Amino acid sequence: MFNEFTALLSKEVKLEWRNKFALGGLLLYVVSTAFVAYLSFKKIVDIPVWNALFWIIFLFGATNAVAKAFVQDSKEKQLYLYTLASPQAIILSKMVYNGLLLFVISVLTYIVFGVLVGNPVQNPTMYLTALILGSTGFSGTLSLLSAIASQTQNNVSLLSILGFPILLPLLMTLLRLSKNAADGISWTMSLNYVWILLALNAIVFALSYLLFPYLWRE
């Protein structure tokens, strides 16, 4: 299965590189929303406001980036892939690729947002940890939801309806951890949020690995 996974992951990277307009659209979204925030606030000194705006921008960017994971694939293409590789390799390659893509988007958002409206984060290492865990969690959850939505006619609507309530526990924990990072609170006071995020990510990846083969049979 490892060879199937690496081949599928390589395919995802090559397709994204060929279709640069998709990545370019995400970059344009990040820069434009950060610039609108700059025009509105000039400089944000209130940490909760800065943190909330950052995650709102990232949340919508992540949804747009990962929504196409399965939704854009035709039934014929899905059938062709399923004859070449195991369903576990397919879902794992999608989640890993989307996780890497979301991490790049999150770092870019952090840099652009910090340059335009200021960067109040006092513990960048902890904030980077939140970005890694958030990218992983969003990737796993949205990839599985995209696979479910691709089986319906109104796939985009279903993904939007299911996405927010399922992502809410992850998002709330990320907000608390990233706020602690911005406030400069020590790791000992924030480790519980890290463990919660690790547990949520592990549950999402385990459920995706176990449930996707049954979804694939449909």
Automatic annotation (TrEMBL):
Its main location: membrane. One of its GO terms (biological process) is cytochrome complex assembly. It is found in: Membrane. GO terms for molecular function: heme transmembrane transporter activity. Pfam families: CcmB. It is a multi-pass membrane protein. Belongs to the CcmB/CycW/HelB family. This is ABC transporter permease. It comes from Salibacter halophilus. The lineage of its organism: Bacteria, Pseudomonadati, Bacteroidota, Flavobacteriia, Flavobacteriales.
